[in-house]
Amino acid sequence: MKKKSRFLTGLLSAVMALSLCAMPAAADDVNPKATTANPVWTQDTGSITIHKYEWNGTKNGAPATGEENDTQLPVGEDGKKPTPLAGATFEIYKVHDENWLKSYYSYSSSETFDFKKWNVYAEKSGNAYKVKSDANLKKEKDATTDATGKAEFKDLPLGLYLVIESKAPDSVTTACEPFFVSVPMTKVKDSQTNPLSDWLYNVHVYPKNKTSYGDATLQKIGKQSGNDTENITMEGYKFKLYKKQETGAWMQITKLPKNGVDNTGDAIGENGVLTTNANGQISVSGLSNGVYAFVETGVNAADGYILDSGIAYVFKIDNAKMVKAADTDVAADIFPEGTTSFDFTSFDESGTSQVKVVNYKPDFKKEVTKRGKTTTSADNDADYAIGDEVPYTLTINVPENIAKLNTFKVTDTMDKTQLLCNEKSIVVKAEDTQLSEDNAYTLTMAAADSSNSGFTIDFKANAKTAINSYAGKTITITYTATLQHGASVDVAGNVNKADLRYSKKTNIAEGETDEPYDIHDEAVVYTFKTGILKKGDDGKKLQGVEFTLYKKFEDTKDTGYIENEETVGAIFAGNKKPFLSDDETKKLGLDSTAKWFEVTNLITKENGIDIANGLPNGTYKLVETKTNEGYNLLSGPVDANLTIDYKTTWNSTTSFDNNGQIIKHGEAKTTTFNDGKYEYKEITIINRKGFNLPVTGGFGTLLFSAIGALLVVGGVGVLMSTKKKKKGNA
Fold first, then answer.
1. CATH assignment of 528-649+678-687?
2. Half-sphere exposure at residue 272, Cβ-oriented, CA atoms within 13 angstroms
3. Would 2-209 and 363-526 be classified into the same CATH topology?
4. What's the CATH fold of domain 363-526?
5. Concatenated DSSP letters of 552-619
6. For residue 335, what are the β-bridge partners?
């Protein structure tokens, strides 16, 4: 009986070892000497049922018996038993048949078998096992554990079987080592009383696996061209998570794993869509091992960043760690839904491993050059005179993904009654290189019959690609527009508008609607007026009085007007004016230390008023050249200075509206003049009546002659009377 007991103990030890899974099933290396006759088996078939669990604890369960009994499972410190593991595939191979097994169990048999040497038949394959090609074993069956962790092999012919885990779930660190199962085997409860008479035909085994789950983090980055600061507070950006399958195809992950099976646990995101938090991050915990990809599906339109669609940002979860993926980890021509390319370089291995997804957006501004200064003094408002060619600059910071955009164009508009664009003045430069319309853009001027006098520059029209080489750089468009006689001289000013329109996402498919973002900016040009109200000293308004308006040449503001050393260019109605000579300046009573030039002539109307419209700020003098009869000309020039200090406050915004437009400077503006409200008023000039000299040959001449004669006669009489008195006194 001792030999029988030793034999059965060795065999049962093999089965019990199955519960550990890290060790192969083992039998006594010494062939037992049975003491009974050949066993009597009452069935021709049996079964093997595998109960698969994930267990990362340190405790072991009760010894395996081969019977169905979950008391063999270990219990953790929290009192919980292992979690069933679905998705584990097992294969069974018959190593020896019924006759061999009977001979092995008979006490007369000389058969031996080393149950520990499974590696004679199987070898490691990835995180699972496979049968060696030279093992000469034929697979009987395979089965995969269900949600309860159970896989069954029924109707098995009696014999000795090798069991291997040929496919482990992605969450499994290492598959269970191969083991042997005898069908039938003796029941443990009868091993001492009747060891060979009670046989177990349906064998249950409880192998366990160690599992690991990893966390994935995505960091959203915003990069505006022309700005070195990265924005990481990008809340509200949408992503989907995909996992590569064995076939190379991609499956969207909408739920966490459960029982080791993907997409069977708790839901992630909202309807499978993950959204960045206030820190621009997405974090997903509890992912099984495998190759994954984040795919961006939506942006926060209020930020104006471009959705870089069609890209799968790839990474791996490997033994609970997020690691960088390689191109060999994916099938080169199979992409997640809606994508056409893989990105492996966005994975950041420094510090906390994460995928960094960058979105780009351009910047755009419109400026008008201050009068007489260089383009470095550009701003959103300036003052000019009618006839002036007003210089404008449009500055575009090109996004890094310009090559992928369907729309990228600038439109500039102006009211032709106020401003007239000079087509030949338009110059487009990228950095210091002047771009050609032949290969970089298309220029379209506003229709001649429209009220607009502007243009459109389309950088993406006709599939032109020269602009792509300037990704991340700066493009400037400079041009001039002539201020017209219809220009506004009030607080509204003369507004010039510009828009940069660019696609909201990359890789827009043919036939797909492109509804671009719009960055809107404006600049305003003011022009002013001065006028006279001519009255006599009796309060009568004088008509027909003539004046000439002169302007002092100012080096800091009027440099743009210099034609040559002797003349000044257009300042009023486009006329070229010569500088006054020194003699002319002195004769007119103007400041002889400055240069002066004539602006225009004024003639008072019936109401005594005349106005000079469309003037810039500056020092002006009115010189009266003709007045009404009976009134004296002014003895010197009259001040008509324009020193209007204007400040424009725009109702600007910093985010895009629901239509994808941002208005950096808009029509809703407030202009303050001289720290208060601008109110124009004419300069009142009073002329006084003079003394009227007599006309030659008229009555007045005779009268004065008679009076003179009387004065002479009277004088002679006084003289003679005086002489007589002197003689009488002698």
1. 2.60.40.10
2. 11
3. yes
4. Immunoglobulin-like (2.60.40)
5. E--TTTSGGGB-SSSEE--SSTT--EEBPPHHHHHHTT--TTS-EEEEEEEE--TTSEEEEEEE-SB-
6. none
The CATH superfamily holding the domain 214-361 is Immunoglobulins (2.60.40.10)
Backbone angles phi, psi at 303, to 5 degrees: -90, -25
- The dihedrals phi and psi of 521, each to the nearest 5 degrees, come to -145, 155
| Nearest Cα to Cα of residue 390 among 490, 521, 526, 492 | 526
Q: How far apart are CA 428 and CA 478, in angstroms?
A: 7
Looking up tokens 């990481």 gives: 232
Question: Is the pLDDT higher at 350 or at 26?
Answer: 350
Give me the phi and psi of 699, to 5 degrees please.
-65, -35
* Every domain of the chain and the residues it spans: 2-209, 214-361, 363-526, 528-649+678-687, 693-720
Homologous superfamily (CATH) for 2-209: Immunoglobulins (2.60.40.10)
pLDDT tens readout for residues 294-352: 999 999 999 999 999 999 999 999 988 999 999 999 999 999 999 999 999 999 988 78
Taking only Cα atoms into account, the Rg of the chain, rounded to an integer number of angstroms, comes to 51
Helix (H), strand (E) at residue 101: helix 98-105
Question: What are the tens digits of pLDDT across the range 115-164?
Answer: 888 999 999 988 899 999 999 999 999 999 999 999 999 999 999 999 99
Residue 11's φ and ψ, nearest 5 degrees, are -65, -45
